[in-house]
Structures are given as structure tokens and as C-alpha cells.
What does this fold into?
Amino acid sequence: MLQNWLKIAFINYKKNWLSTIINLFGLTIGLTGFMLILMHWNDEESYERWNPKKDDIYYFQTHYKKDNSYGGAISIPLAENALKRISEVQDYALMSGTDISYKMITKNKTAYQEGGSAVSENFFNLFPFKLVAGSYKDVLKNDNNIAISNVVAKNLFGKTHVAGETIKINTTDYIVTAVYELPKGNSQIKPDFIFKPVEQMKNDKESWGNFNYGCFFLLKKGADPRSFEKKFLDIIMMRAKISKDAGMTPQQFIDTYGPTDSLLTPLERIKLHSEMTWFGKPDFKSLMILFTLSVLIVILSAINFINLKTAQASQRAKEIGVRKAIGSTKSNLVLQFLLETFLICFVSYLLSLALTELLLPSLNKFYDKEIVMNDWHVYFYSFAMVALVTVVSGLIPALYLSNFKAIETLKGNFARSKNGVWLRNGILTLQLIISSFFIIGGLIVNQQVKHMMNKDLGFNGNQVFQINFNEDNNGKPWLKYERLRTEMAKIPGVESISFAEAPPGTNNQSSSNMDYLNTSIQARHGSMDYNYPQFMGVKLLKGRWLNPKLSSDTINNALVNEAFLRKFGWTDEQAMKREIRPGFDNKAYHIIGITKDFNIRNLKSEVEPMIFFHYRETSWKRYNVGNIQLKLKADDIEGTVKRIKTYWQNSVEQGYPFNSYFIDKQFAKTFETYQKQQTLFTILNAMVLMVALLGLFALSSLMIEQKLKDVAIKKTLGASDGVLVVGLTKQFLWITLIAVLISIPISYYLMNEWLKDFAYRIDMPVFPFILSMILLLTLTFAVVSIKAYQATKVNLVKYLKYE
It folds into this structure.
């Protein structure tokens, strides 16, 4: 029996070769998209699985009720008191810097090493990398201890067993206490060398408000993280009680400055499911959108399969009648048709595996990953999807075909049944609704990305060339900058020079509370040179710029932006009379100028309140001077860059890489995420339209074929080809129009939710909705009219011989 079913299946595949190819193509495309996105998702979920203590390690985040925002940092006193006072805590580790770079000197070699991390002493208690040499006991106990990876050890010493060896960094000799091997699996925590930020931690040890560290807590076995969060409220209250702010109760202090609560996220989930981490904010929402869209494509492919299989009903009706007449049961027929469906689905699955392997390098390049097809979850879930598609797309046509009555089909009356018309029309409507949504969504995404790229940023980064330098001048980097500013002004092609701690396209700027009387806001702050706003083309709205001739401009004068005023609710005139007390200093700052808002971070976020001041104004800020920016003359930019590079490598930092970039290109990188979303949406849009048009072709074939007898009668009575084509396409055009009208409110709601994530967004445009309607009506008419015109050439004798 099985052999007979297979023969019948292959005969029908060959007979209906076009629909077979359409089925294979649609399902292969759908399954390929599903597998690629699934592999991307699995890869994102696989971070930190290497850690044997992962089930008990949690990342700490703060919550601020006033702004309903989350922070990814902690202060040392908060972490230490959590260890002392919360019974669930076994240990913790702090991280104050990642991707740190130093020139390292050994007795054998000098090399510039990147990828370092500054951590607390007990880091390895939570992250037990495989030990190659040395010991983790007291590994960072002394101020000059350092641990390095086996790769760094080979690079510096030519071997891995180098515990006890000396590495000179700047003027300090560090002793290698341990050599470790980094995990092979995905991890956000893969430092090439590890040291303790001694001076920083000494300065922050008693500073409850210096949130300068990412924190991981190791809880005891079976401990409830929610219990930790409740008990941490007592430690927050401790901070409030020891505050020296007069006139505030502890609760008022917490409500004003925060944090008001805490959140622990399991180590394995921080890459995608945390609110905020030391490594940035996850974007799980975008991943879920992509996955949902890939599933929709598979669903559309399955719907096409249903339509095409049902469209073949008229060709197989007599076969079914004969099989029923000789004793075949309905269940046998259903199993036969399910087998035929499974064979197509299985071949599509094999083709999709090959296509996925072919497209995987492009996906890796697109996301900067190294995914390989070795995860059994991908095979399991994709095959489960194949099984589901087989059942869904095979069962409906199987039941439809097996319900044919033997007598009617043998008499040729099978086409008169109207069973399933509403279902098929509903399926077509669903396809067109999804297609309309993709067209509308794709156009809106495209307009939003263009809007961000064309928006006035409030600064001009053209021809501004930034060089990041390393600390020297006996640990006084601002003196190095001032020397370079004088010397590099002599290089031909350099127009002007400046510095900013927080240049556009970076996240270098810190935030702190800004207090005025009983009001406090959070604001970003960045030190700079006197001329930096003018250097970047920022506009002054009120007051004056910083002036190098006025000593007060290096003592307590500052500029603020419009957002700063909005947050306080001040007018320009009020702001110019105010003195504010920033949390980063112990003196009051006088506002002398107000700048127009300019965007430093990215265009998804609203411009935040910011305060700008000279780098000598705050004692510790001068230590953050780490770059020099040069505006180049337009006539010979390439030649000027070469001269700058030659000077730098010969006279400034020999043995260090030339770490430089143009500001406008650096800021353009903040658009990459949205440009990738635009590209993916365009690709998925094309796939959905292709699959939907195949579905439209399938259903039009079915319904027009069922009407061939009516066409033959009308043609016999004298109807013209044009009248017949209009009559056959009219129903599909009405279905398309209804589908678009249904999709409009759905698309409006979903795309408006997507746009809410952008501080600078377009108003909901009308054009995409109109274009979607015109485009789908045009495509529907084009696809259906072809089949309708073929129907006008029907053989009259064939369809009238039973009448």
C-alpha cells in the first residue's frame, strides 16, 4: 500500500510540476528564514553558559522610580554592605572598566595589548576561567598583581607558564600571579588581562553615591533573588540615613536621588533579558520582531501549500472516486495525502538546510558573529516546524479531498460543491493582510531611518579628526593634551584643535545629580576645552562661551543645554541667574551660557540634560583627558592625515597603534542597528510578497478552475474575453481591498508601538497606507488576470459535455 501511495504521489508531483516547484520554493524560503533567525536567537541566548556557577550568579541593576529607569552600576559601599547584611549573598565581583589597552614591556618583548578589564580582588571566585599557571589564591591581593590569558602570555613571553614574571605598564612593574584560558563559548566577559583599579577603588571605598562599577552577586545555593531585592531596600535606606544633606528625611533622599529599588538578573540571561548592564542595554524586542516575522513567512508558505493542494482537487476527484468505489476508507485517503505533504515538506527541509548553510556566512558578517550549524536545538525546532507544517498544511486539503462523494465525482459533478469557499477566501484575506502590513511597515521603517539620518544633530562633525592617546606626563594627561595642542597646530592642514571628554558617537559621558534648592535632576556631564562648542558648530542661545582670559571659567562656570532647562522647568533668564550643585563636585557652579541641544549618543534617545565645563575646573576630571580633536582643512584631508600619523608615531606614542577616526563616521555607527533593521525588514518584505503572490496564484487557480464551466456557458452565450476577465478578477480585487482596509488599523497600531522607541520619530505618514492599497490591488490584478485570460481560452466541449 505504501509503495502504491508513493507511486501516486510522484505521478501527481510530475503532473503538477509547477505547483510542486511553488510548494518547494515557498516552504524552503520560509524554513530558511526561520532557521537563520532561530540560530541568531540561540546564539544570543548561549552567553555565559560556560560558567559552572552560572545558576547562582546574578547581575545587579538599580531602579529609579521617579524616571522609571534602570541603571547598570553600583557603588562599593552598597556592594560591601549587601555582602555583610544580606544572608543570601555569598560573594560579589566588581568591574570598573572593559576593553582597556596598555603598552606592556617584558624583558623579551614590548607589545600593545588590548582587551583588559579592571576588576575587584575576588573576580575569579565568580568567573573561574581554566587555570593554566599560577594560582587564584590571592591572585589580585597586592596592588601590582596582574593575571593574563594564555594568548597574552604567549605573545609577551613565548610561553604560558609565566607566573612570577614581570610586566611593566607605564612606570609600574606588575607581577603575573595567574595565567588563564578564556572560555570557548559565547561570553561578554572575556578579558585578555585583569588587574585591580587600586587608586579608583581607594577613592570610591566610602563614596556611597559613586556608581562606577558593574556588579555580579554570587548567591548561596537555593537563595531567592527576590528576597535579596527586598532586603536591599534596607541598604538603600542606610545610604539615605548617613547622607549629610540637611533638611531631608531618608525617604525624601531616596525619592530624590535614588535608587529606589534593585533588580537581579541571572547571569545566563543578561545578554538579552536584563534591563541595563555594564555592556549596554539589550534589545530583545527587535529579536522577537524578527522571529515573529520569520514564523509568519513559514505560516504563509503553509497556507500556499493548502491552496495549491486544494487547487488540484478537480484533477484528483475521479481518482478519489475510484479509490472510494473499490473500498478505500477516508482515513486511508487522509494518510495518503499527509504522506504526499510530508514528502514535499521533508525535501523543503533538506533544501532549507543547504540554503541556510550557504547563507550563514552572510548572516555572520551581518551580525559580526561566528555561528556554526552544530546546535541540535536548531535541527530539532526546525524539524518540529516541518512536522507542524505537514499536519496543518496537509490535513486541511486531505480532509477536503477525502470528503468527495464517489458517485458525484465519477459523474463529474465534484466542482459544484461550495464547501471551503469561505475558508479559502479567509486564507487569502489573511495572506493579503500580512502582505499589506509588511509593505506599510517596510515603508515606515525606511522613512524613520531616513528621518534620523537627515536630522540636524546640532553639531557639525565634518573634517573633525579624533586621536585617542594614552596617559603619560607622570600621570597628568591634561598636560600631554596641552603640549600636543601647541605642537600639532603647526602641522600643515590643521585648522583648529580642541578636546571633549564626551565626543559624539560615544558613551563616555557620566551622569550625576544636579541640585538647586530642594529640586534635583540627573544630568550628563562632560569636561572640554574652552572652544569645543564653537569647534563643533554648536549654537549658543543665551549668555556667552567659556573664555580662556577669565580665570572664573576654570573655577566654577559652566554651560548647559536646552534639555537641562526643560528638566528644571526654567526659562533662559531664570537659568542665567542660577547656581547649581553637581553631585560630582563639592562646590556650586554658575550657569553662564545655554547651548542649543545637540545629540551626542544616538538619535533613538532624546537629548539628555547636560552640563559642560573646562577640564581644569574639577580636580578629578582633568584625569579623563584622553583625546585630541583636530579640524582639518578641506583641500588636502588625506595628506594631512598622513602627516598627523607620521608625527604621532614618530614623536608621540611609539609602539602604540594610531587610534583615530573621523567624528562624523563614528557617529554614523550609531545608525547601524537601525540600518540593519531596515535591511532585514526589506528582505523579509520581499520574501513575504513573493510567498503571498504565490498563494494568490494558487487560490486564483483553484477558484477560476471551479468556474470554468460558468466561463464556457458565458462564452457560448457570446460574452467577450474582456467581460470574462473582469468578472473573474473582480472577486479577488474586493478581497484585496477588504484585506488592506483590515490591515490599516493593525499596521497603524503595531508601527506606532515601534516608533515609540524613538525620541526623534516621524509623524505617522499616510503615504505607506495608500501605496500599500495601490500596490496590492495592482499585483492582484496582474496575477489573477493572467490566469483569468487563460480561462477565456477554455475548451467549450470539455466543460459542456455533461450538460
The first strand starts at residue 57 and ends at 64.
